[in-house]
# Entry
Amino acid sequence: MLKAGAAGHPTIVMLHGFLGTGGDWVEVARFLQPRFHCLLPDLPGHDGRPLDPVIGEDPFAAYSGLLWRKLEPLLPPRFALVGYSLGGRLALDLACRHPHRISALVLEAAHPGLPLAGERAERAVVDADWARRFETEPWPRILEDWYRQPVFASLSDEQRRAFIERRSAQLPGILSEVLRSTSLARQPNRWDDLPRLTMPVGFLVGRLDGKFCAVGDRMAGLVPNLTLVKLDGLGHNCHALAPEAVAGFIRRMCTAEHASS
# Structure
């Protein structure tokens, strides 16, 4: 696991998105490490090792539990939790399951869940098709299609090529298993849980990411202690393209409990 900053400082755990690695947060952590101890884990199945069996009727909960068992022995009693996209969905799940451990929760472009059965059914079909394509189509050429999805529309050709190059080292067979287990269709609907979170909650999104700007607006109407920030000129990958600005927001969200640290 990658780490940044001295262990004696307040801990921030930073969870990357689907296809990524803990290294995606290195530049953000570089701006935080003078005051914070940052842990940058690879999510299960993203470290080149086969995914442990995720079975049962609730594979998302099983995957989240697998991540927690990996992290928990390394964590202090209280820590801040940051997550992007899939990592944000997992961070929210962990915050709902272990709220007494989380000093602050920062979500970047992360969805709290689909409340309607019809929405979940539609998403299940989409993600199952992507998982099949990961297993059967040429790698890494399939990444070109992945990064042509509407949510990544703000990427320039150069930025898209850079993401594809970084992700090409991943193993598509393992990633297909991760996608099946962590599909938004399988994620618990956490909208009703959001108002019950007592820790400071931050939601970060690029203004060009219309889908998640709408998610952030809806969350802001439900969570009294939520801080919503929209970064100009950015889309769905704020931490990759503006690490200093993202670090500034994380620092702001994580300072209240540790103001004297």
The chain is about 40% helix and 15% strand.
